[in-house]
Every structure is written in structure tokens, then in C-alpha cells.
């Protein structure tokens, strides 16, 4: 492998690891789904437990005594109570559940953080990220002039800079962990969703008219190379475009229609789970939970997404 091929391969791996929309063909973003099965008895807790952890990981909870479970669950409750007033609201439970659902995102950021925080100040500046990701390219641009890769480094760098600025909420040109998480995983943050839509449009809009027509939509998922008939699934996708993607029936998708496509407003599983937990555990019916009410109904919580179905109970609560 020559030097150019090696550098291209390294940069391509960097892009894939960081999950950039430039190379993502699965455009639609879904929250991890919770079970819709009714929580009627302990069997339903076990169903959820196994469905989202797998049978082996579901056994984790069984390794703890009730006393150990309650002790560790109490520490988690303190973390959920974000305002420290001693009451857990549905909103606080929902926020916690969503964070648990997104734990893989934060764990990914933790794994790569030291690769970019070059001066070890617990922030990542744009210059640090640019140097770590594009340093070789910037120092040796002549080696990339004839590259025929599927992406352009010249386009990727300003695109990353634009995304970085959107994630940098306080405008200090450096990202703390939450901001850097939003940069690497913009689809997980409400304030970054416009960037996800814009990047998706730029990826697919080959004629540069600011819209995605049916052929561009199909070309993003299917390369018609042999000149033969289209597979059935492609014909189905054309029907999907006409019936469900092109909402105003003008033959193309604008940014609002793209948002509707890639970020569907599905059933809010976290909200439903949070309401369920409050309803089932709220003994005094004040629509809030105390730690005592939660611990009284501890078996429901360790069988719910609020504690990742028991996994959080085996972690040091400072890790969460």
C-alpha cells in the first residue's frame, strides 16, 4: 500500500468511527426502543429485562440481594434528582432514561477523548481536533490532489468546522465533553438536528438545487451499474418517496421533508416508561416520587429502563 492509499484509509476509518453522516447510508434515526408490553406483573419486568439486555446480562440483577439492590438503587435516585429537591418528577425520570439509552454514545466519546485533547485541559479545541484529524492532509495537501476517494477532504474539513461551531454552545472555540458528544453524535441532540438535516441534504443533493428528487433519493441507496431492471425493493422505495417522503407532492424533498424522513416523530418510549414508573409508585398521588416511594417499589425500577434493567446496579454510581 503506498503512502497516499494508507493515509486515505486512515482518514476513512476516522470518519467511520466518528459516525459522520457523509458516509452513512442508514439515514433514519430512531431512539432505542423500550418494550410496549404492558407492565402488569413480574413477568413483564423479566420480558423487558431480557429483551434489552439479553438473557445473559439479564442475570446480572439476580446476583444481587434485595438489600444490595436497594442500596445501589438509592444512589442512582440521588443522581436522577437533578435539582436536589428530594422529589423525582416525570421529566427527571424521562431525562435519565434517555441518558441511559444514549450511554453507548458517551462511552464512545470517552474512548476517543484523549486522542483529541492534546493539551490535556479537559477540553477539545477546534484546532486540536483539526490537527488530530486533518493534520497530515493540511501539511501535505499535494499528496491528495489526485485522490479519487468517495469523499473530498477539502469539503469535509469546513463541514466539520461548521458542525463543531454548532456544537460549541458557549462559543469559546472549545468543546467540553457534552459539546464534543454533540459534535460526534449530532443526531442525539435537539440543537444539532438542523445540522444533521443539512448534511443529509448535501450528501444526496447531487445537482445542488437545494432539494432531493426521487432519482437522488434512490441513488443514495442503490447504484444502478449493470443497466438491468431495478430490484423490487427499489421500486418499493420509489413508491415510498412518492407516497410518504414528498409530502407536498412537488416531486422533491425540502429540508422539512428530509427532517420528517430521517427523524420521524415516533412513540416516545422514554416518556411512556417514565409516566408508568411514576403512576405505579406514586403512593400519595402527588405526581412525583420520593426516594422512599421508589425503594418501596424497587423491583419495578430494576426491571425498567431507568436502571438499564439492572446493569446500573452493578456499576459504581459515579460512572453514570
From TrEMBL:
<protein>
    <submittedName>
        <fullName>Reticulocalbin 1</fullName>
    </submittedName>
</protein>
<feature type="signal peptide">
    <location>
        <begin position="1"/>
        <end position="19"/>
    </location>
</feature>
<dbReference type="GO" id="GO:0005509">
    <property type="term" value="F:calcium ion binding"/>
</dbReference>
<dbReference type="InterPro" id="IPR002048">
    <property type="entry name" value="EF_hand_dom"/>
</dbReference>
<keyword id="KW-0732">Signal</keyword>
<dbReference type="GO" id="GO:0005783">
    <property type="term" value="C:endoplasmic reticulum"/>
</dbReference>
<keyword id="KW-0256">Endoplasmic reticulum</keyword>
<comment type="similarity">
    <text>Belongs to the CREC family.</text>
</comment>
<dbReference type="Pfam" id="PF13499">
    <property type="entry name" value="EF-hand_7"/>
</dbReference>
<keyword id="KW-0479">Metal-binding</keyword>
<keyword id="KW-0106">Calcium</keyword>
<feature type="domain" description="EF-hand">
    <location>
        <begin position="155"/>
        <end position="190"/>
    </location>
</feature>
<dbReference type="InterPro" id="IPR027241">
    <property type="entry name" value="Rcn1"/>
</dbReference>
<feature type="domain" description="EF-hand">
    <location>
        <begin position="192"/>
        <end position="227"/>
    </location>
</feature>
<dbReference type="InterPro" id="IPR018247">
    <property type="entry name" value="EF_Hand_1_Ca_BS"/>
</dbReference>
<keyword id="KW-0677">Repeat</keyword>
<dbReference type="InterPro" id="IPR011992">
    <property type="entry name" value="EF-hand-dom_pair"/>
</dbReference>
<feature type="domain" description="EF-hand">
    <location>
        <begin position="68"/>
        <end position="103"/>
    </location>
</feature>
<feature type="domain" description="EF-hand">
    <location>
        <begin position="104"/>
        <end position="139"/>
    </location>
</feature>
